[in-house]
Amino acid sequence: MSSRRLDVPLRDRLIVALDVPNMIDARNIVAALGDTVSFYKIGLQQVFGGGLGLIDEFFRLGKKVFLDAKLADIAATVGNATANIARTGAEFLTVTGDAPIVRAAVAARSQAHARKPLILAVTVLTSIDQNDLTDMGFTMPLADLVEYRARKAKEAGADGVIASGFEAARLRALLGPDFRIVTPGIRSADSPKDDQKRVMTAGEAIRAGADHVVVGRDILRSDKPADKARAILDDIAAAL
């Protein structure tokens, strides 16, 4: 794999997933992490718990926001939603990896004369393995499906993809150093996998080619979340 990679500040390579029940818990996590963490993911749990209101609040604190909305609808609806999201200043936005959806999101951002959000296409969730794909009716090997969806997403104009660390090296070689790879399903070596199936440590994912790693439970469950975040950042720094 090429040693070239996007020039991203170390702190921005770690994205903490605010997968907590409500806005109060989210604020408490951000306060506990302080200056250690600069980038947060707001997912569906927070979106439907009032979490969109946190975006401006986090910006005032100097934080970046990844809106993990996984938009999936007809192109016009996705475009309209993306135009509204562009006004929030969110850094990243996820859409499903279907080409018409990606194209609609990219076009809407352009029409809004916005540089953000970067459009990230979901390939295959890290909670899914080959057996799950077979149950869904897919016959293609999982890694091949991830590669196919990533390639189609790039052709449609996506800025990057969401993919596990197990596919990161293959995607980096295929898609080049400037295509952003964001890897969820990150666990410390001694942590349980929970509902994830294709997991890696942060350092392993970065070495494989990921630009950013998304960490939730390892930090959220820690008695000392800032210390845990610093340890993950140290792992990332060593991998770089």
TrEMBL record:
Keyword Lyase: yes
The enzyme's E.C. designation: 4.1.1.23
Organism domain of life: Bacteria
GO function term, MF aspect, one: orotidine-5'-phosphate decarboxylase activity
SMART domains, per database record: OMPdecase
Active-site residues, as the UniProt record annotates them: D68, K70, D73
Catalytic activity, as annotated: orotidine 5'-phosphate + H(+) = UMP + CO2
GO BP terms: 'de novo' pyrimidine nucleobase biosynthetic process; 'de novo' UMP biosynthetic process
Gene3D superfamilies: Aldolase class I (3.20.20.70)
Residue numbers binding substrate: 19, 41, 68-77, 126, 187, 196, 216-217
Keywords: Decarboxylase, Lyase, Pyrimidine biosynthesis
NCBIfam families named in the record: PRK00230.1, pyrF
Protein role: Catalyzes the decarboxylation of orotidine 5'-monophosphate (OMP) to uridine 5'-monophosphate (UMP).
The protein's assembly and partners: Homodimer.
UniProt protein name: Orotidine 5'-phosphate decarboxylase
Organism expressing this protein natively: Oleomonas cavernae
Gene: pyrF
